[in-house]
C-alpha cells in the first residue's frame, strides 16, 4: 500500500492510489517536494487532503504547479498551512485552467490568519501615526510655535510613513478577500461544468455552460469590487467631513482667539501644506480636476 493513504484498512498491494491524506504539521515546507513531484504524475489520485501540514506558501506554489498538470484530482483540502496571499494567488491561477476540482472547502483558518496579520499591521500604523502627531505638537510647544524645519519635517515624515503602512494593510486585506473569493468562484464554476457534462450535454453545450459560469463568477467578483469601493468611498467621505470640521475650528481660533492660541495650532497649517491631500472620493477628485482643467482653457472667440 502507499504510505499516507487515507481511508480505513490497508490498501491491497498494487492497488491504484485514489485517496491521499497527509496531515503532519511537522513536515512544513518539506511537503512541497512530494506535492510538486508526485501529484502531477498521478493518473489515479482523485482526493488529496494536505490540511495542517504547515507547508506555507512554498507548498501552495507546489500545489498550484501540480494542479496545472493534474486532471484527476476532484477533491482538495489544504487549510491550516500558514498560506498567505501569495499562496492563494498560486492556487487561484491554477484553478483558472483546471476544471476538475469540484470540492475545495474554504480555507477559513488561513484566510482568517492572513486578515488578522494585516489587521495587526493597521493597528500598529495607527499607533505610530498617533505618536508622531503627539511628538509634532510637543515640538511646536517646546519651540513656542517656531520649531526648526528639520524637526518638523522629521515628524511629518513619520506621519507619512504611518499613512503608507495603513494603505499597505488595507490593500493586503482586500487582496486576501479577493483571492479567497476567486478560488471559491473557480470551484463553483467547475461544479457547474461537471453537472453539464454528467447530464450528457454536447461539447458545445458544456462550453456554453462554462462560459456562463465564468460570467457569473466575473459578476460575483465585480460585485465584491463594488462593495469594496463603496466602503473605501465611505471612509474617504468620513475623512473629508472630519477635515472640514477641523479646518473650520482652526479658522475660528485664528480669527477670534489670542495670538498664543493661534500659534498653538501652527503645526496644523504646516501638516496640511505638507500632506496636501483633499479628503475627497477618487471620483469626486477626478470630477474636480476636470472642472479645473476646463476652467483654465480660454473661451473660443
What does this structure look like?
The protein has 301 residues and is mostly helical. It is 67% helix and 3% strand. The protein contains 9 helices and 3 strands, in the order E-H-E-H-E-H-H-H-H-H-H-H. The protein has helices at residues 32-38, 56-69, 85-97, 108-142, 149-198, 203-256, 259-263, 266-275, 282-296, and strands at residues 19-21, 47-49, 75-77. It has a 3-stranded parallel beta sheet, with no helix packed on it. Strand 2 (47-49), helix 2 and strand 3 (75-77) form a beta-alpha-beta unit. Helix 1 (32-38) runs parallel beside helix 2, helix 2 runs parallel beside helix 3 (85-97) and helix 5 packs antiparallel against helix 6 (203-256). The longest helix is centred in the C-terminal third of the chain and has 54 residues, at 203-256. The model is unreliable at 1-11 (pLDDT under 50).
Amino acid at each position: 500500500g502507499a504510505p499516507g493513504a487515507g481511508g480505513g484498512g490497508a490498501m491491497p498491494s498494487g492497488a491504484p492510489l485514489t485517496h491521499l491524506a497527509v496531515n503532519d504539521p511537522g513536515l512544513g515546507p518539506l511537503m512541497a517536494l512530494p506535492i510538486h513531484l508526485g501529484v502531477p504524475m498521478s493518473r489515479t489520485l482523485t482526493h488529496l487532503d494536505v490540511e495542517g501540514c504547515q507547508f506555507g506558501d512554498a507548498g501552495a506554489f507546489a500545489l498550484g504547479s501540480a494542479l496545472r498538470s493534474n486532471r484527476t484530482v476532484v477533491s482538495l483540502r489544504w487549510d491550516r498551512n500558514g498560506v498567505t496571499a501569495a499562496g492563494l494567488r498560486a492556487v487561484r491561477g491554477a484553478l483558472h485552467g483546471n476544471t476538475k476540482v469540484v470540492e475545495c472547502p474554504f480555507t477559513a483558518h488561513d484566510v482568517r490568519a492572513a486578515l488578522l496579520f494585516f489587521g495587526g499591521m493597521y493597528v500598529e500604523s495607527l499607533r505610530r501615526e498617533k505618536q508622531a502627531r503627539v511628538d509634532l505638537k510637543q515640538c511646536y510647544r517646546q519651540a513656542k510655535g517656531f520649531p526648526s524645519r528639520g524637526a518638523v519635517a522629521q515628524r511629518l515624515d513619520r506621519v507619512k510613513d504611518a499613512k503608507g503602512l495603513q494603505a499597505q494593510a488595507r490593500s493586503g486585506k482586500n487582496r486576501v478577500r479577493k483571492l479567497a473569493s476567486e478560488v471559491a468562484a473557480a470551484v463553483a464554476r467547475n461544479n457547474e461544468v461537471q453537472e453539464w457534462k454528467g447530464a450528457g450535454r454536447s461539447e458545445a453545450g458544456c462550453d456554453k455552460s462554462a462560459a456562463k459560469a465564468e460570467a457569473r463568477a466575473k459578476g460575483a467578483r465585480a460585485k465584491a469590487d463594488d462593495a469594496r469601493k463603496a466602503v473605501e468611498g465611505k471612509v474617504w467621505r468620513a475623512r473629508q467631513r472630519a477635515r472640514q470640521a477641523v479646518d473650520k475650528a482652526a479658522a475660528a481660533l485664528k480669527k477670534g482667539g489670542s495670538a498664543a492660541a493661534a500659534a498653538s495650532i501652527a503645526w496644523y497649517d504646516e501638516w496640511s501644506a505638507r500632506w496636501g491631500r483633499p479628503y475627497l472620493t477618487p471620483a469626486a477628485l477626478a470630477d474636480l480636476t476636470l472642472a479645473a482643467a476646463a476652467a483654465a482653457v480660454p473661451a473660443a472667440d
